[in-house]
Design goal:
- By secondary structure, the protein is an alpha+beta fold.
- 33% of the residues lie in helices and 18% in strands.
- Strands 9-8-7-6-10-13 form a six-stranded antiparallel beta sheet. A five-stranded mixed beta sheet has the order 1-12-11-3-2. A two-stranded antiparallel ribbon has the order 4-5.
- The longest helix is centred in the N-terminal third of the chain and has 19 residues.
- The N terminus is likely disordered.
Length: 467
Amino acid sequence: MKKKVLGLFLMMSAVAFLGITSCSPSLLENETPVTNEVTGPSRTYHSKDGSEAFLLFMQNPEENTVASRSARAARSLSGEPYVPTEEDMFAEMWESLSDSEKQMLKENAEDALVSFDSVLAVDEGSPVARSVSLGDDSVLSNMTALFGFTAVLEEWFEGKELPLSVVYAENDMPEDFTVAPDATVPAALGIEMLSKNEDWDAVAECLSMLDTDITVADIKNEYKKIEESLVSSVHEAQSRASSVLGGPHDTALRRDVGKTLKNGTVLLTSGSKRPYLFGTYGHAGIFSESAFRAKGETDAAHCVYTAQPYDSYFNELPTDMLPDRTGHACLDTIYMYTKETRFASIIPKNYSDEKAKQAVSYAKSIFYDTNAEYWCPLWEAIWLGDSSHNEQSSFTYCSKVAYTAWKKAGVNLDGNTFAGNLVSPDDLYGSSVDRYFYLTIRILWWSKTFSWKTYSATSNVVEALNR
C-alpha cells in the first residue's frame, strides 16, 4: 500500500478570498466538492507562488488540458494513486471557466498572480476549536509546524533522490529483506528524518550530493519552527530553556485521567519537547476500559494496549509507569502517558461503543494474547516494505497496535503524512485535521479560487496537555 501524498503544497491565504469564488471537484475518490468557507479554526501551513507554472500552462491551455486528462487517465489505468500535479489543477480550473474568462486570462496571463496554498482545519465544535476560542492555539500551531516542515522540504527537493546508504543503515533489517545496491530514497523524506534526529552532518552530506542552493542553515530555520511550536503553549509556567527537558515527572499532567476516558481512546505521549525521528509524539497505545476496571481503576493500572522495546530507559521509571512486560506487545499504565512531558488523546469521529469494543478486542487478540515481539521496521519510513498496514502481528510496534485495532474495527486513523509507510504516533495525531488544496488566480479586480479537499479527518483530539 502506498501512502503519504507527496507535495502537499496547494492552499490559499485569507486575503485571497476577495473576488469571485469557484469550487472544483475533490481530489479524493468519492468525495463531494467542497466550499472554501472553512467553518472551524484553520491555519495555512505552506504557500507557493504558481505564477511561472501558470504562464507555462497558458502558452496552450487547451492542449495542456487535454494532455493532463490523458496523463491522469493513464495513471488511473496503471493503478497509481492520484497525486495531483499543478497541470491537473490548472486543467480543472480551465474547464470550469466561461469563454469570456478564458479570453481574459489569455490576454492578461503575464499579469496574473497565482498562489498554491495548503491549509489545516478542525471542526468548529471540536475540543481543539474550543481551545482556540479560549486563546490556546498550541495544538493547531504544533500541527501547522509539523505539516509545514514536511511541505517545504518536499518543495525544495521535489523529484530529487538520495542513495539509501546515506540516509539509512541497513544492518537492522531482517536477513531475508533484500535491497538493491543502487536503492534510493526521496531526498525530502531522507533529509526530514535526519533533521528530526538533528544529524546535521549527515544533512550536510546529503545536500552536497544534490544540485541545490539550500543550506543546512535554511533547513535548521524551518526545523526550528517545530521546536518553537512545542514550547509556546499559553499554559506553560516554565522557561523555554527548561521546558524542553524530558520526563519522567513526579506528578501527572492531570489526575484520574482513566476515569474520564472512553473505551478505545488512543493515547499519545512524549518525554521531550523536541521532535522525534518521525514527529513530536514518541509513543501511542489504545485504552481498555475493561482492563482499567479489572485492575483497580487507577492511572497506575495496566490498561493501555501497546508494544514496548527492551530499553534501559525503563530502569529510570517509577513502578507506576512500567509496562507489564517489555520487548513485546504489552499493557501500559496511564501514567506512562501522563507523567511525561506531553500527553494527548484522540477518538474516532464516528465513535461508537460497539466499534470501540471491537478495536480493543483486536488489540488484545492480535498483539497481546500472541505475545507479539516488538520490532519497529524503521526501513518502512523510507518506503521499503509495508508491514505496518498488514493488520497482523508481524513487526509489532506501539502505534501499529492502535492503528490496526481501529482499522480492523472499520476506522482508519492513519493521517498519511509522516514517516513513509510507518504509522507513526504523529500520523495518528494528524488524522484529526482536515486538509485542503487551494488554487487562486488574481488579475487586478478579478479573482477566482478553486478548492479541493484532500483529506477528511477521521478523529478528534480530545485533550492535549504539556508542561
